[in-house]
Automatic annotation (TrEMBL):
Record Pfam families: His_kinase (PF06580)
Species name: Arcicella aquatica
InterPro entries: Bact_2-comp_sensor_kinase, HATPase_C_sf, Sig_transdc_His_kin_internal
Keyword terms: Kinase, Membrane, Transferase, Transmembrane, Transmembrane helix
Domain Signal transduction histidine kinase internal region positions: 153-227
GO MF terms, alphabetically ordered: kinase activity
Transmembrane segments: 12-31, 43-65, 72-96, 116-137
Recorded superkingdom: Bacteria
Keyword Coiled coil tagged: no
Name of protein: Histidine kinase
């Protein structure tokens, strides 16, 4: 469905809008006919108006225009309007004959033309309604995204316990470690780079993919030194590292592997990571083997939080899938570039 009516206020605005249409139509009809006849035919017309508007907004546009193309959409709309014009004219003639006139009268071509013109006008009005609904949806999404960004910024600020002090201290430790243990110095440098990326880059709207990948590589290296049996990791990538993406999107999958998908008592863990660019899509896949007794007891909140963030950034224009079998756990993310 292209646009949904999810909140009470949305329903209220729809009711108010149709009430205004009803009142204006009724006032116009009262200038020609009596109250009962005007009320009857106004309600009948309103039923067909609602049918035309919502069928176009919620059925024809999302399911035909966007998926089948403009030709199929236009043809279907024309046939639908002709059918509704015929039905409305027939029903109106039947109601007039049996409730107001008492005798059958033929429906003239002029009456069909009048009904068709009214239906076409309401059909065009449906596009105005569509623009209003889309504007409200975009406004609500922008507000939610702003709130999420503000919350993330607040959390980030709360986590910044004197970052300059930490970086300066790490630099001092790094220079001392270079003298005694070059390997330790390298690890400190990677940790420093990760902290700097997190504090200085993660609040940006988009970052270079190369920086995101460097952050992931450092994270993996630091995780491996903590493990008695480091897993076998194959990380293939076929992308342009100048590509820009929202920060901290990919790391969630890697964190989940080390937090929930590694048997730390087994030397047989295998991890496969693939990142590739196909046209205007970025495809990221992680797969880790599972032991006979799975160590994934409960998935964390990372993926659910990520899915909410993806929905705010890309609406429904992304794919996130999780598959678990007896032997492996696979997560796939597809986002547009």
């Amino acid at each position: 469905m292209l646009i949904g009516i999810k909140h009470y206020n949305d329903w209220v605005w729809h009711v108010i809008g149709w009430s205004l249409v009803f009142m204006l139509s009724l006032l116009g009809a009262l200038s020609r006919d009596g109250f009962t006849e005007s009320l009857t035919f106004t309600l009948l017309a309103l039923f067909f108006y609602i049918l035309i508007v919502y069928s176009n907004v919620y059925v024809f546009i999302p399911w035909l225009y966007f998926k089948q193309g403009i030709f199929i959409y236009t043809l279907a709309c024309l046939l639908w309007l002709v059918l509704l014009t015929f039905l409305r004219a027939q029903v109106s003639g039947w109601v007039y004959t049996y409730f107001f006139s008492g005798k059958s009268q033929p429906i003239l071509l002029k009456q069909y033309s009048t009904v068709l013109i009214g239906n076409l006008f309401i059909f065009l009005f449906s596009f105005v309604l569509l623009l209003i609904l889309r504007y409200r949806l975009v406004s609500q999404t922008a507000t939610m995204l702003k709130m999420e960004n503000q919350k993330a910024a607040l959390d980030l600020l709360q986590s910044r316990v004197q970052p300059h002090f930490l970086f300066n201290t790490l630099n001092n430790i790094y220079f001392e470690a270079v003298k005694e243990s070059p390997l330790t110095a390298q690890l400190i440098e990677k940790l420093s780079d990760m902290m700097r990326y997190f504090t200085e880059e993660s609040h940006q709207e988009k970052v270079l993919l190369s920086k995101e990948l460097q952050f992931i590589d450092h994270y993996i290296d630091l995780e491996l030194i903590r493990m008695r049996y480091p897993p076998s990791i194959q990380f293939t990538r076929s992308v342009s590292e100048n590509t820009m993406i929202p920060p901290m999107l990919l790391i969630t999958f890697i964190e989940n592997i080390f937090k929930h998908g590694i048997d730390k008592t087994s030397p047989q863990n295998e991890v496969f990571i693939s990142l590739r660019q196909e046209g205007q899509q970025l495809i990221f896949i992680t797969q880790n083997s599972l032991p006979a007794i799975s160590v994934i007891q409960k998935s964390g909140s990372g993926l659910s939080n990520l899915e909410r963030r993806l929905a705010l950034i890309y609406s429904s224009n992304f794919e996130l899938s999780i598959k678990k079998t007896t032997s492996n756990f696979t997560a796939t993310l597809v986002i547009p570039l």
